Amino acid sequence: MPPIVLEHATLLDGTIDERREGYHVVIEADRIREVSDTPVALQNAQRIDLGGKTLMPGLIDAHVHLIATSLNLGTLVNEPTSLTTARALRIAEGMLQRGFTTVRDAGGADWGLAAALDADLSPGPRVFFAGRALSQTGGHGDSRPRTWETDSCACCMNASQLSVIADGVPAVQHAAREELRRGATQIKIMGSGGVASPTDPVWNLQYSEDEIRAIVWEAFSWRTYVMAHAYTPEAIARCVRFGVRSIEHGNLLDADTAAVMAEHQAFLVPTLVTYEALHREGKQWGMPQVSIDKIKDVREAGLQAVEHAKAAGVSIGFGTDLLGETHHYESLEFSIRAQILSPFEIIRSATLVNADLLNHTGELGVIAPGAFADLLVVDGNPLDDLNLLQEQGKHLSLIMKGGKMYKQTLV
C-alpha cells in the first residue's frame, strides 16, 4: 500500500490552543511518518488535498459499554451472545462514524470483540477493554432482584456479561487475574452504588480497603491500572487513596476530594451525557423505575463536579457511558461540557488526556511522527463551533483509523 500524504492541512490537537495552517502529513501503513510545514516530495504517494480544512486526531471515548445493547440490561441474559455481539458491532460502527477511533470499554466487551474490530472484520474503533467489572455482592454490578436467594448462581445473574461478583481478598484476586488472563487492558471495580443497579443507593460504599488494594496490586503486576465507578466524595477519596487511577462518573465530587485526586494524580472521567439521555429516554426504552428515580441525584451535580476537578488541576478525561438505544447521544457530551470548559479543554480531554489515561501517550491523541494514523478532517474550526464534532459525523469529511480511510468525501 503506497504512503498517503495529506496536504495543506490546518492542524488542531490537544497540544496547542490554536490551529496551525499549511501542514503536510505523511502516513505509512498504520502510523504517521512525518509532519511538515513545507510540501513533501515523495514518489508514488496517494495525495489528498485538504484545502486548509482542520486535521485533528481521532477522538477517544474513555467510557463506553459496547455490549450494553439495551437500556433494560436485564434482557441481555435472555438473548444469545451472537446476537448481542452483532448489535455491539453496529454500535461500534456508529462510534467510528462519529469520529471516535478509540474507545475504552468499561465492562462487557472481551478479547474476541476487540480482536474482531482490530482485524477490521467490522468497522469500529480500537478497543481497550476491562472485561467484566468486579462487584461485591449487592454492589453496582449485582443485578439480581431482591427476591433471589443469596446462594443463587451468580454466573446466571442478569447482565452477567457486564460484571462478575467477587467477595473477599482471595476472590477478588482470582477475579482480577481471570480478567487479565482473558486479555483485559485494565480492571474495573464498582466503588459505590449506581443508577442502573436495583438494590444499592448511590451513597453506598463498596469493597473494603483490603479488597481494593489487592485488586490494584493485581493490575499493577500486569503493568496496568484500576478504574472505579464512584459517585460520592467518600467513595472517590477512598478509592484514590487505595491506588485506583481512574474515577468514573464522580458526579458528587467536592473541592476537598478533587484536591485528593490531584495529589494522587488520579484521572476523572465524567460521563454527563448518559444522565441526560436516561432522563430523556430511559422510561421509553424500559429502564426500571428504581433506576430512573436515581438519575436526578447525580444529573444535576455533574457539571459542578467538573468545575471542582478543573479548579484542583485534576486530569479530566472524556467519557459517555451510554447504553442501548441512546448511543446516538455520544457527541452531545461536547455541548454539555461546554457550559464549564472551553472547546480546547474538551478536545484535549478527548484526545491527549485520554491517550495519557490509556498509557498510550505519543501514540494516540496527537498528530506527530510515530503516532497511530487516527485522523479526522473537519469542515470548519471546532474551536469556534463544537457542533462540528456532533450530528453523527456530518461535518467530518475524512475518518481514518490506523491509516485506513473509513470515510472520504473530499473532492
From TrEMBL:
CDD domains: Met_dep_hydrolase_A. Residues 54-402 form the Amidohydrolase-related domain. One of its GO terms (molecular function) is hydrolase activity, acting on carbon-nitrogen (but not peptide) bonds. This is Peptidase M38.
